[in-house]
Queue: 2 jobs
Job 1
Amino acid sequence: MRAKTEEQIAAEEAWNETEKVWLVHRDGFSLASQLKSEELNLPEGKVRVKLDHDGAILDVDEDDVEKANAPSCDRLEDLASLVYLNESSVLHTLRQRYGASLLHTYAGPSLLVLGPRGAPAVYSEKVMHMFKGCRREDMAPHIYAVAQTAYRAMLMSRQDQSIILLGSSGSGKTTSCQHLVQYLATIAGISGNKVFSVEKWQALYTLLEAFGNSPTIINGNATRFSQILSLDFDQAGQVASASIQTMLLEKLRVARRPASEATFNVFYYLLACGDGTLRTELHLNHLAENNVFGIVPLAKPEEKQKAAQQFSKLQAAMKVLGISPDEQKACWLILAAIYHLGAAGATKAGRKQFARHEWAQKAAYLLGCSLEELSSAIFKHQHKGGTLQRSTSFRQGPEESGLGDGTGPKLSALECLEGMAAGLYSELFTLLVSLVNRALKSSQHSLCSMMIVDTPGFQNPEQGGSARGASFEELCHNYTQDRLQRLFHERTFVQELERYKEENIELAFDDLEPPTDDSVAAVDQASHQSLVRSLARTDEARGLLWLLEEEALVPGASEDALLERLFSYYGPQEGDKKGQSPLLHSSKPHHFLLGHSHGTNWVEYNVTGWLNYTKQNPATQNAPRLLQDSQKKIISNLFLGRAGSATVLSGSIAGLEGGSQLALRRATSMRKTFTTGMAAVKKKSLCIQMKLQVDALIDTIKKSKLHFVHCFLPVAEGWAGEPRSASSRRVSSSSELDLPSGDHCEAGLLQLDVPLLRTQLRGSRLLDAMRMYRQGYPDHMVFSEFRRRFDVLAPHLTKKHGRNYIVVDERRAVEELLECLDLEKSSCCMGLSRVFFRAGTLARLEEQRDEQTSRNLTLFQAACRGYLARQHFKKRKIQDLAIRCVQKNIKKNKGVKDWPWWKLFTTVRPLIEVQLSEEQIRNKDEEIQQLRSKLEKVEKERNELRLNSDRLESRISELTSELTDERNTGESASQLLDAETAERLRAEKEMKELQTQYDALKKQMEVMEMEVMEARLIRAAEINGEVDDDDAGGEWRLKYERAVREVDFTKKRLQQEFEDKLEVEQQNKRQLERRLGDLQADSEESQRALQQLKKKCQRLTAELQDTKLHLEGQQVRNHELEKKQRRFDSELSQANEEAQREKLQREKLQREKDMLLAEAFSLKQQLEEKDMDIAGFTQKVVSLEAELQDISSQESKDEASLAKVKKQLRDLEAKVKDQEEELDEQAGTIQMLEQAKLRLEMEMERMRQTHSKEMESRDEEVEEARQSCQKKLKQMEVQLEEEYEDKQKVLREKRELEGKLATLSDQVNRRDFESEKRLRKDLKRTKALLADAQLMLDHLKNSAPSKREIAQLKNQLEESEFTCAAAVKARKAMEVEIEDLHLQIDDIAKAKTALEEQLSRLQREKNEIQNRLEEDQEDMNELMKKHKAAVAQASRDLAQINDLQAQLEEANKEKQELQEKLQALQSQVEFLEQSMVDKSLVSRQEAKIRELETRLEFERTQVKRLESLASRLKENMEKLTEERDQRIAAENREKEQNKRLQRQLRDTKEEMGELARKEAEASRKKHELEMDLESLEAANQSLQADLKLAFKRIGDLQAAIEDEMESDENEDLINSLQDMVTKYQKRKNKLEGDSDVDSELEDRVDGVKSWLSKNKGPSKAASDDGSLKSSSPTSYWKSLGPDRSDDEHDPLDNTSRPRYSHSYLSDSDTEAKLTETNA
């Protein structure tokens, strides 16, 4: 940015001191200065200004004054950058730029283009390359900048792009479209690309301009169709294919068009063709005098010449696009046929036929049919069977013929002829579009596309100075522009506001006016009951297209009814202000005004003939069939070949064929618009078809990112005069100022029409869009995308988290990044999922990112280049070493090339290579076989894929045919539905007519009833007159008269009341009218005040927003300056630090300089000393030379001395030769040593590398082994701890089991002893009881119950005996099991001790392993130390070797010097031989020779020392290898030991598992034994209870029979006891084999035996001992009393007692009965 001069600064200060404003008036605006209103007494709403051009002072409204910007803003590239954004400032900037030939200006995100009058030089190829690869912020406003921006966005986002051109007709939209395509074809086209080259797009626009353009009153070359040019790009950003889709073609312009306008350009080109052969073939040598289509040749010769040139250019363009000569000829035939049809004409009345048959015959010949066929296709429309005729053309035209019942449209002959011409031209245009797409399509894969939308601009005949009304085609084009304007509003305002609302960003846009889309709704608004129409008026509004479609189906419809219905829906209502409704009435009949561009462009339309136009023309439908049935093959083949393809959608959109996937997707989108919802039924309607075409256009481009280009008309020549002023009054400012124009404007800026430009600016709403762009946040990015893209600007965050780190909270990460970027707070805003930026902020961040990226890439390149340079240097070193080796090998080869063995080797070696080559050939043959097998496999797969693809293609063709059938079915259904709708409408109309007739008849009937009533009254009066004489008749007459008088009086009274009320109501009405007028006046006044306040508020809000934005800009600038200041401070501090460092370095250098000066001084002194020495040496040399001269001057020498000298010389020569041989040998030895040294170096280097690698691998293995050993030790420790814990647990369980077993054994022993004691007592009691029982049984032996009781007692006794035996047996078994348990416990204890020993052994082994590992570690450390020492020693040895090598080199040099000296000496000796040298000189030479010999000896010693050093190095290497092998062996041993330990651990684990299983088995057995013990205890307790009960019973029995003890009648009892004893003996004998009988039971049986033996004595003895017997039982039971009580209180007895309670109770009952009997 250039610095401002003092003059510019002074001018800006002067401007800021005066408050400059723009004064808006009718012809534009003027610059003025606003005077201070504080000192002036002005009414409210008025300001005083002083004009700058003439100094006039005016008082004007505040609304007519707008703030002006500084002169520095006159030619700003972006209008959104103006400080004060208002209409006048924008228009002033545009005027300044237009005057400087700057036609393009940014308007926020859009581009504004002022249509140029010529072809400026700003569209050259050089300018294109200036924009290539640039960003938007780096480019000046230009149409190429829009293309580059869209192209760059497409490459970055891989999203489809669309460029939409908006504006009026003649504003340069098509020209801008051509520039866009030219730029994209230039920068994105591949050199040599045949798909879309520059020549092809030029040929494309030449063809479209010829067939689709025509002159109008507004534009000399206006486009008469809408188009979408799609460019498909591949992965590399190059154009892969292209296609074009056309719609809304004015096909009727061929035959009928507005006055003073021409047809399409191609007809004039064809008529001016200079090719005589073609003219003769087309019958154009003789042209008709008049043509009903208005196609006449050009009159001026220069125009004819230009048209002929254009025709030649058109033919060349068609050739470039690949259109063959036959296809071109077919086009010329159809065009010539259309011309001849216009020349033939049609009759105006009578029979429908041609007016001039000779011209019709020419047309039929050119079309390849007969005159009758042509006439029938045009004028005769008969349908068979009342069905609709459907053409099989690929055209599938939209027109439908009328119904077969004669109710179709009645067309004149001229209308039929016009329909045929329109159909032929429409088919031809569609064919050309298909051929163009054929030339542009490609089979390359495309990734994304760019669409350029070009439509005809706004059409207003008043703009061209014509007084006619606009046509239906112009309405369609204006409607398309309104829809595109609404799309611009949705993308610019609605979507942005919705995005802000979704992201929770609060922004106030109160000054934005709400959109007004009433003009669009008035044209296309559909009813919710579109399929069910009714003639009755409803409140639901319909658009003009829908009304036309309805009226076209109603017979007898008129334009007046159409306008009446249209104005009922959208016309101005009562109380509406002017301009609020989209429609206005016109003073002309059948005319209406419609406000386009938000009510700024009012177009007057003429609806005359619109209903006939929207009705179907059957001739148009017959045109495709006529072309397909042509006898000329070039025509029929061309149209039949495309009969089945879907190149036209429902007769409206052409060019839907395409070879790429993206073209098919666009075609599918457009078809979906025509086949979904209401469109599927209405797509055949001509009116609704217009809306559907625009819907398809909008739906196609909505899916892409949009770029808008607004093209404005700078001047309209036709707007001069009254029509322009009338129109401008509707749209211009409300100010009525009329200032003189031209006095204050520059001469070069007068070419702009400011009112026209203001109208277009207001219609496009660019000011609101720019305010939205300035105040909002137009740039936004998703959190994750922003973080990934700009985290390169915060490298510390990247280092902190990593490049691809996962972020949990993206919002927080973006906030951190924004804090690091240090942006102004007002320049960005955080949403819920996005970050928003002010305009320009993201561009600055992108620039910073590019700079940082370039720096990073520079550093990366430097690192790469450094690495490559180092690698190259290493390579050169290796090459140098290799070259040296090669040189040495060559030298050796020279030495061995004559060696016979070498010759033999060189002879045999090729034979070996031949064998190797044969093996290689065999390998190659095998590879070839494998490749052949792979190729066969691939071929097989390819054939399968080809079959699959053929099958899929056949399936696709089947589906396509099915789809066409369904489409035809749908079309027929829609036709039937339309027919039914027409019938319904006709029936509704008839019903309405019948209803009106019914109402009329009803009224007539009421009148007739009244007449009948009057007649009856008259008849009654006559009858009353006839019976006058009767009295009764007199009374009736009096009554009748009285009734008549009452009726008259009532009538008068009601009439008077009605008149009074009417007068009162009229007075009230007049009062209400006056009040209403006052209220309306007040309301209008308040509305005007409200509007003024609203405008003032909007103006103040806009100025406030401008000031706020200016303030934010200043804050951003201050922030940037602060950042620069901080950067400057940091740089300054760095510079100070660098200066300080430089100062320190300077001081250091000064000290070094002083030291060097001192050294130089010392060296100087040494040099002087050396000079003195040299001077001394020179003196010596001079003296020696004098002596030599003296010696040479001696002539008298004896022969003896000469012979002696010669002999000495020969000896010296022999010695020299010997020394030379020795030197040669030493040189060879030195060379061999050098080679050995090189080999040793290479070997050392290789061994060092291998050793280092092996040591590293060994270190890694040792480390892994150490880690694995540590892990294993840890695992073993854990296992040992677990085993120790298990051992402790088992020991605890063992001790617990032993304690339990001890307690159980004690309990069992104690219980056995107690039970034995109790059993003995019980046995004694049983014996006593048995004795008592015997006595009682003797006493009662004769009673039967006593016998039964005895039998029961016997049984019970046997059972108790057996139970006791079983208990004893169980006890013995339990003892055996307890012994087994003791044995198992002993085994477990032994296993535990073994495990403990094994564990201790493992622990010892573990300790030993640890010690061994520690020793190994120490050995390893020592070995590492030795290795390091060896490496250091090797490095030192290498250094010594290098030193020795240097010494050897020095020795070689000295050797060479010595050889040179020897040569010099030899020459001197020869000279001495010749000159009689004396002995002194010979002695000196001999001394030198001896010195050389000593030096050779020294070199030999050095060589020996080197050999010893090399041997020592070899020994060291051998030692290292031995140590390495030992270390490897030790590691292998450790690995084996580890494996052995692992096996031991595994065995230990298995043993532990076995022990655990044994312990579980022992615990299970222990549990079973405990259960058995419990069951035995329970059985023992039950037995004891049984015994106690038995004792009780026996006691009761003893008490009962105590008195009978002395009775002798006890024989039965004794016998029974004896029987029992014998049975017991038998059972005892049986059980002897199984188990021993209890001794206690035997004692009891013995007691019974003894008792029985005692009782066998005489009865006297019994009577004598009766006292003893009677007393002993009593004392016995008394002695047993406490024991029995104790036993009864035993808890174990209580638990087992209920099992036997029932039997014992029954026994007690029996005893009670016995007691009663005894009593």
Note: The CA atoms of residues 1492 and 1498 lie 10 Å apart.
Job 2
Amino acid sequence: MKTWFLDFWREREEVLKRTNQLRLRPPQLKRLLGDSSLRPELQNARLASLLPPVGTEVFRSFTPASLQDIKQRHEAEETERQERTNKDVEKELHKQATHLEAGKPLPFILGDPPPELLNCPLEELDPFYQSQKTFIVLSEGNVLHRFNAESSCFLLDPFSRLRTFAIRILLHSLFRLLIMMTILTNCGFMMISSTWSRIAEFVFSAVYVFEVVIKILSRGFCVGRFTFLRDPWNWLDCVVVITAFLPEFLDLGKFSVLRTIPRALKIISVYPGVKSSAGALVQSVKRLAGVIIMTVLVISVWAVIGQHLYFGTLRHKCVLMLLHSNWTYDDLSSYHDNGTVSSYFDFHKFINSHENQFSLPGELDPLLCGNGSDSGLCPHGYVCLRTDTNPNYGLTNFDSFGSSLLSLIRLMTHDTWDYLLEQMMRSSGKFSVLFVLFVFCGGFCLLILVLAGVAMALVEQEKAGVTEARRTEEEFLHILDVMKKKEEEEEEEEEQEEPQEDPRSSPPCCVSVCRWSCCGCWRWLQLRINGFVMNPFFDLVIVIVLILNCILMAMQHYPMTEEFEGWYQFTSRVFTGIFTVEMLLRLVAVNPYGYFRVGWNVFDSIIVALSLVELVLVDVEGVPVAVSDLMRMLRLARWWSTFHMLMKIIWTSVWALRNLTLILLTMVFIFTVVGVQLFQDDYSDHVCRIAADCRLPRWHMNNLFQAFVLIFRILCGEWIQSMSDCMVVSSPSVCSIFFMMVLVIGHLLVLNLFLVLLLSLVGEDLVAPKEKIKNNPMIALDQIKTGVAWTRNWILEHIWTLVGKKTPIIPHHKVVDSKEDNKKDYLGLTSVTSVTSDQPLSESKALDSNHGNQTSKRTFPRVPVADAELELDIPEKEEEEQKQDEENETPRNNTPEACCCDSCYRCCPFLDIDTSQGSGRVWSNFRRVCFSIAQHKYFDAFIIFIILLSSAALVLEDDDRQMLLDMADLVFTFIFLLEMLLKWIALGFRKYFTSVWCWLDFLILAVSLMSLPLCMLGRSEVGAGLSLRTLRALRPLRALSRFQGLRLVLNTLGATCPSMCDAMLVCLFVWHVFSVLGGNLFAGKFYYCSNETELLLLPEEVNNKSDCLLLIHENFSDVSWKNTKLHFDNVAAGYWSLLQVATFNGWLEVIYSAVDARQVESQPVYESNVYMYMYFISFIIIGCFFTANLFIRLFIKSLDQLRHKFGGKHLFMTDEQKNFSISVKKKFSTKRPSVPEPHNQCQARLFDLVTKLSFEVVMVMVICLNTVTLMVETDEQSHEKERILSYIYFVFIIIFLTEFLLKIVALRQHFFCDCLNVLDFLVIFISIAGLFLPDIMEKYFIDPNILTLLRLARITRIIHLVPYTGGIRRLFLAFVMSLPALFNICLLLFLLMFTFSVFGMLSFAHVKKTAMINDMFNFETFLNSMTCMFTITTMGGWDKVLSPILNTPPDCDPDGGDCVHPTVGIVFFTSYITLSLLLVVLLYTTVVMETLNMYDAETPSDKDLQMFYETWRRFDPDTSQIIPYSQLSDFCDALQDPLRIPKPNSIRLIHMDLPLLPGDKIHCVDVLSALTARISGDGGQTHTLTARMEESFTINNVSKMSYEPISSTLQRKQEEVAAAVIQKAYRKHLLQDGGADAVPAEPAGGAAAV
């Protein structure tokens, strides 16, 4: 499969990098401009066509004579145009030069203009504009600006001094700086309220008016192409000026934001780079129009579904039962239906009173309930009744389309969706999980399409630039080639180069001073110190000291004893001294000039200086400490490549992507200021609506900083709570629009920044794996390993000498080299094969014999090759285990291998028996039978069936069925024991215990066997018996080795494991830095004094710990001084707190504690330090955003390297799944046969009617109206509205029935060939039946809600009419083709979820019900446990599920069985979150990559075939149909997309397995077939391509030559590698025998010529 997406970005980086370096030296430029003999050979080059005639200046001032020449050329062109009749030529005359567009720098071919001509009017350089009234001006940086030569505003001609002066001002850098400073100052005044604001407003308005005047004077107003109003960005200036004076005449009120937005947007328009990035973003949104339309359509349909499924369900609450004689339970239950009210009692008021509704402690909303069997129940004394209010201020409901849409968006964005799911389950039953799961799956598909769409938009934006850069590079090389030929012809001419001053002749004085070359003694000392510092062990010691320093900082905790604190301070000063000495040694070794030229040395010197300053100011109060220690930890990036990559990512976002980052920051600022201006007064005036104490909530927009923090929270994905508060205190419509804009625009910008940042360094990261350059610590470690190996071998030699035996080993260096060579040889043999590790050998051989020859009937013998397996970047031991495992599963014959290893036979000779006779023969035959049984497919199927049964038995764990389940468990254990014994006999111990999967089966079985005795003794429910019983949850993991797709995923994960572990270490290290920083900021500050009701005492009552202890001493027993569960008192606790912040679960409690903290052992005060928000914002940006980018980058890098290593093979699909993808593509690509037109005239007219596009448009409009009628339905609608809707519904039935009759008459039996027509028929039939028999249909056949869903199904017909659906269908097809990979990963995720659910059910079933553990979410049953694990998988509410598990006495009762060891809960949740997060990232990354790669999978067109033929002719001028194999790499690189394979392409060409002809030739048809199969993933098109290619050669009168292939590219590579292995082995054998001198130095590749 072609990984075109990453290949494109890799090529883009390389091409743009080379293009930016294209320069002509002054002699070359002078020759190009002055040598007339070069022009004829460059006449076809676009760049050369821009050159002026020889002998004329390139840059000429614009004069009245120039204007007269323009008029003459314009008249001549008009005359010529009237005479021309060839439209193609006319079109060619009007082609504009892309290199000379306004806003771009001058092309390199024109050189640099004289400094005196900058900012002055010049004649046009573009031939397209030379006949138009325009002139150009070049600003700093040779940026081209184009102006109209007409009079500006009919007053100022191009030569007017005023206009020239205005142009100079407009293009001057100081003018742009003035405007930027004005905008920034204006933004600053927006954030403060001052008496100077009005005066400043007049100043700002004057500057903006001055800017507009300058632009109008220099460009003109509107008449002309390059005038003021012709630039859309200048419209922004007009809006700024108009809104500046509008408040003087009108009171805008909240609409004053219209003044804020355009002024802030001017930040984007000031600098061209930011402006172009903003334009690219707008264009990407246009390209996403189809995806956006489909997303809105799908969400709207889901909202209607939710609306009709959950009408009024969230209104049911637990109401206090009345003990009134006139009211019974039936009266209360049926009140809502009959509506009767007692004359002396207001029942409606009673049930809607908040005092009469049951609420859980700490909850604002009453407890929801339902009347279903699986709905939530009310406590004793309460009854479930329908009330008038909904939860969350009445905003969370499905009673209308708007509320349902809001809830759907909440579910898709995962914003406290677990709480919404609990409400739905309580009111409607647990089937609501299915609806939420359906929404999540659909949301996942939509998100994949959006991600793929954004990525494709980025590619489409860059394609034009890359194509232009490639053409520019080709023309540059062509110009250099032409000039080189001319120079060779004119050898007598010497190239004149400008003299360059030797910098060594006169170095600056400061350089001489900083080199410290005083005397010979000093130079001698400097040389010795330099040798000491440059030694690899010096850097290794520094790295070890840095690691020890990090460990020392991790030992900080609260409270610390005086002895420990003194020891800590002393050790810290020792480290400071060590690093100071290091700096001095490096400074002396390379002198200051060489030292400060290295960036890392500058960073080290700054840290040392800060450390020394901290030592001096250690006793000064208020001076921050540990700053240098934190910075010192960053020094590890100098030697840690992955950590260095993270810092490079951060720097890239700050500098290389500064335009996109600035746009994001600008939008955040705009949203912040607009939010304050819109809602500041509303929060102040109506805060009592959302707070009983009339105190502002923590998340509000009453000031700029709080508004900024709120905007950042929305960008993190939490918006529903703040939006609900806003809708209560302000206008709901304004709040919903504002929050939705922040949510959509903000996330779109963040997504673009993330993707661009991810791909920004792809050219450096995603290259083919090469030999890594080792740094000094790695070299030192290698030397240590070598020394250890030499010492070990020396000791062994002496031991064998003392024993008196001959040494069995060779010298130490040969031992090490031998191992390395053997490993490389083994990898070399396996890396050239392309069979996955789980593929049967028979299929491998079949594939190996047919691959690459799908279109040709030519066959040839193949030489035997080594068993193929997937090469994984895993340790050598695991590789050996995997190799043995593959041998277990892909046997060559029915002959079992030896039972034991060779050492066992040497130690116990009696084990080695003769199997050719006697009992040995009987034993051998018995093993053969066992081997045949173990390898039989029915045996595997039986074991899989038993595994499924045993897993089902774990699901059914219940006290009532415990005896039956124990017996079943005994049977399963016995069966698995028989399986293990059978495999021991069949495979032998050596082969069995060298397989990872067999070890997994053995360990799981061992747990079951150990639990059996305890179960028989009745000890299975306590102690070790309970632990072993719980570990039975691992039994479903036996299925991992039985499913091929799961093994593919696990093999790939194993291959990416090293890079993932490296990324995880970097992530943990970054978190370590923030944990230490958090300890310095918050250690000991989260303690508080409270009473038994957890009510925080006010600071006026308790100021610190002493006051709290005084209250306790005064017999206030309900008062205690306690710490929060999440704190930073030590590094481990800091890690746990940061984990909750990173997953956005429980993070608000940590943030609230931080912003309320004051001093150590002081009582917290509400928001006493709000600027501590910045600590958590920094952590989310650096510790989450950038580390996630690094993690995904390394994962993509590993996948891309694996894919390139195996020739673009799928890493997550089996062969059957690949065939399924191909068949899906064929099915979607095959056009449906057209319906024949009827012969009857009446039917023919109806046929023409129903097949017209206009008819389909009308019906789609009717379907949309039908959907709108479903949207306008509400929960409590009037009878009049119901009657009107029923009439409308009847009209729609008539319309659809008419359509059905027309189509059935016109299309006849072909009507039912379309699925949509069948769906229409079913909906019409059920609708008519429900119209006449409503009671019977509702009672016996179909629910009205299901009928509503069927009516909504018609909306799918709208997709055919959306003009942008072509790209959507293509994206959707690519997504469907990636479904097999999605299925494999989801199956592994489900197995993980299943295993942890069973473990949770066995471990946490009796946990005390607090927090989120309740009657809906718990581990009591398997389904409830799966629901909990499902929410945790989405990172939703896991902190609330974990909180009850962490309870310890007295919060739980150990005797009652509701206490669990907290360590078990922490390990359980941490491991599951880590594994599930890894799989979810793998899921998203893999599916997006597969979708992008398959998006470009298409069959070559005739144009592509013609391109292939023309390129082939260049390499095969004799049209012999064959070329040498050595030219294949150049040929594939010379092709154009989509057939092109850019260099380096040797590995991919080998894996194409092309047939080789005698003389190492390859045939054109084989190459074309392989390239076509590569880009389309389908070899079925190759027969057609072969015929078309042969036809092309026949047309050119070339007879097709006959030939017989003798080998293939893959086979040839295998032969070369095998020959190299044999040669190396032979040399080693001679060296071992002392014949090293007799070994000729023959290269390994020499076997290729044999």
Note: The radius of gyration is 39 Å.
